[in-house]
Write a structure and sequence with these properties.
The chain is an alpha+beta fold. The chain has 2 helices and 4 strands, in the order βαββαβ. It has a single domain, classed as Alpha-Beta Plaits, CATH 3.30.70.100. Bound molecules: copper (II) ion.
């Protein structure tokens, strides 16, 4: 299992947190997801099955912009 941090600069409130945690949590291979509103970042725990492009697509499809990705 590896950790990944995705910066999502559009995150501004608890609604964003709930929305992103829900859609990213549905991506196969994602075992944990936590949004930090203050730093506008998404902490993701994943196993080898999780496709980073699927994670990014889930965030974009929810209406947000993906910034830097750390820990790929
Ligand atoms: Cu919001």
């Amino acid at each position: 299992m590896t950790a990944l941090t995705v910066q999502v600069p559009d995150i501004s409130c608890g609604h964003c947190k709930a929305a992103i945690e829900e859609v990213v949590g549905r991506v196969p291979g994602v075992t944990g997801v936590s949004v930090d509103v203050d730093s506008a970042s998404v902490q993701i725990q994943r196993n080898a099955d999780a496709d980073i492009r699927a994670i990014e697509a889930a965030i974009v499809d929810a209406g947000y912009t993906v910034g830097a990705v750390v820990g790929v």
